[in-house]
Amino acid sequence: MGLVVQKYGGSSVSSAERIKRVAERIVATKKAGDDVVVVVSAMGDTTDELRDLANQVTPTPPGRELDMLLTAGERISMALLAMAIHSLGSQARSFTGSQAGVLTTSKHGKARIIDITPGRISAALSAGSIAIVAGFQGIAQDTKDITTLGRGGSDTTAVALAAALKADVCEIYTDVDGVYSADPRIVPTARHLAEVTYEEMLELAACGAKVLHLPSVEYARRNQIPVHVRSSYSDRPGTMVTGSIEDLPMEKAVIVGVAHDRSEGKITVVGVPDRPGVAARIFQAVADAEINLDMIVQNVSSADTFRTDVSFTLPKADAPAAMAALEQVQDELGFTHLIYDDNVGKLSLVGAGMRSQPGVSAKFFSALAKAGINIEIISTSEIRISVVVRSEDLDAAVHAVHEAFELSGDEEATVYAGTGR
Amino acid sequence: MGLVVQKYGGSSVSSAERIKRVAERIVATKKAGDDVVVVVSAMGDTTDELRDLANQVTPTPPGRELDMLLTAGERISMALLAMAIHSLGSQARSFTGSQAGVLTTSKHGKARIIDITPGRISAALSAGSIAIVAGFQGIAQDTKDITTLGRGGSDTTAVALAAALKADVCEIYTDVDGVYSADPRIVPTARHLAEVTYEEMLELAACGAKVLHLPSVEYARRNQIPVHVRSSYSDRPGTMVTGSIEDLPMEKAVIVGVAHDRSEGKITVVGVPDRPGVAARIFQAVADAEINLDMIVQNVSSADTFRTDVSFTLPKADAPAAMAALEQVQDELGFTHLIYDDNVGKLSLVGAGMRSQPGVSAKFFSALAKAGINIEIISTSEIRISVVVRSEDLDAAVHAVHEAFELSGDEEATVYAGTGR
């Protein structure tokens, strides 16, 4: 008998009907002989609705109280799910993050899991129950206040619980049946991936593939928890995230796919005096505002003016704060002005195969060139090449690269209706 | 500097606007120099909406999970209220029943408070914060599961917290400005009561006055906590519930008012063999179904048949279960049949003055007789006379008794809009 942790996202439990269907799947897993722990998100748009309610009261709710408010969402979905399982004749008990022993840092809205002490979960399993755990939430180890983990937090809860309980697998149920070689909404012939390594999944998640969030993949890799990304609307096998690129046999080290991302904007700092330390001061100012930069490019300095331009990308939501932080150091640093451009898109090619196959970069850039696409920023890792292009060129760029690397599958991808994750 | 516990019901916090208004009142109390602990119910109809959601999943939700679900309601209102106070520049921290140390029995949906260990509340007050506590909920002392207290539970939470924290007063804010000598919707000239004793309030609450629930008044009396029932829409003084009838000076021992109740039905057990122990068996069968009877009458036995009829009143909601329990013992007890009558109403006259003034009963029954009202059951206590009449006669009966005892005030009662409590 094994132990399976299953995670269901908000769209999988968006109504009483869907909750009942999810309950049937859970009970079937239990009846097949495994112990089951379920991590559940808030129903559908509940979290956004609660955020709206907070905004009606104040534009700047304190983090502690916002977390208290938002955690009501999973409380509702987990209790309903436990009821639905109960009505099918199986035992189920729901647990808040705090009851499940999810200990976090105290940074409200963006807490990190420090440890899980799942004593009550183990006890429920021993008593023959299915345990339902609220995703996305925990209790701060120092202040004992309720915290939330930020976007995608329920995935992290699931993987962390799987690690703490030494589960055999963590199944992430969503509205697509796994990871594809490209977004099937852009490339209908994108290939379904049966398996990817942790490292490749990390790159894909960091580059815009929305099927898994970065922290959950990091947690899975660190604890060697196999993560199975599956559809809650079908029984087809999904994508298994497991193993390291270091252990891949040569024939399995391939190019896995093309990710794209429209969530970032680009800031250009124009007329930066070209002397040591100025670039560092620019990035320090942005870091002090707790903003993470993504890709960076610095132009060649002008021989006439000894000035240069520095561009970087960052999440669009962080752009106003970054602009404000930079304006504060404008006099000190002496740059001439700032340009914000939110009409950019990022494309990334990912795969362990880059390490062994020569000529990947050449093929990549020549595909983009043939498609007439202008490149603004380039960055690479051992298993990834990323470029920033005009937003309107992004779909064509995805097509061009996907085709050049012959990533298409034999059949059209199945795209499920749904609101995404 | 004193300590005030304030409780706001669901209609007082039914929207973001109302929450902001309540926050202003709370901050004003704090600025006037008192420490403030606030107990809050779920917003408006939230609890009913959550119940509906549960019913969409299953008609018979397990109590543990239903309590988990319903407690999301106060979590939302208390967090929003803390945000609203924060936006007015004061500090506020919200606490669930569990965090506030509300320890209860484990009877889900009807838990009783065993003790309160308000360490975190005291710490928040010491730190200069206003403490917001979820009403209606607690944590079971033995199972550590989340519980709810049943209807009116937020009042009990407030009074119990006031007792545990040794507060100077517990203010219950509702949509009327206190207790009246009759329901102003029936008797527009009903008099506002500035003060009533615990015993009188207990009788009024037990007899249908909805402004306070019975368990909260019992808790207040046991712990000698003055309870001030006030309107959340005005600054008028409300009704102070305090003191015992034993300590009342003669001139203050008066008839305080007329309560009425349409929430009960009447069951008649017809043709009961008139032998010792049969009546006891009837009431035992009903008690075994965990149903509380209210008033009881047994007819004079027929000389011909040695059979009698036994009638009793009980909450309408409990009638089906009581009928089923009685049908199960019909063969054993040998009664002929059962009649259920839900077209009854109960009127009660309450006041410590009954103990000292002779002729109260005579005046009471003569007023009903003059109004041509037929009486079906009578019961009395030291400070109360209750009768069951036809439901359609109830308003006329209230008027007749209220007038006979000259209970009207000098001005028309102010009746506030609102959905009741």
From TrEMBL, chains A, B:
EC number: 2.7.2.4
Transmembrane feature ranges: none
GO MF annotations, alphabetized: kinase activity
Keyword ATP-binding belongs to the record: yes
Pathway: Amino-acid biosynthesis; L-lysine biosynthesis via DAP pathway; (S)-tetrahydrodipicolinate from L-aspartate: step 1/4; Amino-acid biosynthesis; L-methionine biosynthesis via de novo pathway; L-homoserine from L-aspartate: step 1/3; Amino-acid biosynthesis; L-threonine biosynthesis; L-threonine from L-aspartate: step 1/5
This protein's UniProt keywords: Amino-acid biosynthesis, ATP-binding, Diaminopimelate biosynthesis, Kinase, Lysine biosynthesis, Nucleotide-binding, Repeat, Transferase
InterPro entries per UniProt: AceGlu_kinase-like_sf (IPR036393), ACT-like_dom_sf (IPR045865), ACT_Aspartokinase (IPR054352), ACT_dom (IPR002912), AKii-LysC-BS (IPR041740), Asp/Glu/Uridylate_kinase (IPR001048), Asp_kin_monofn (IPR005260), Asp_kinase (IPR001341)
Enzyme class: transferase
Catalytic activity, as annotated: L-aspartate + ATP = 4-phospho-L-aspartate + ADP
Pfam families documented for this protein: AA_kinase, ACT_9
Domain ACT: from-to ranges: 267-343, 349-421
Family assignment from sequence similarity: Belongs to the aspartokinase family.
Protein function: Catalyzes the phosphorylation of the beta-carboxyl group of aspartic acid with ATP to yield 4-phospho-L-aspartate, which is involved in the branched biosynthetic pathway leading to the biosynthesis of amino acids lysine, threonine, isoleucine and methionine.
Protein name: Aspartokinase
Organism of origin: Fodinicola feengrottensis
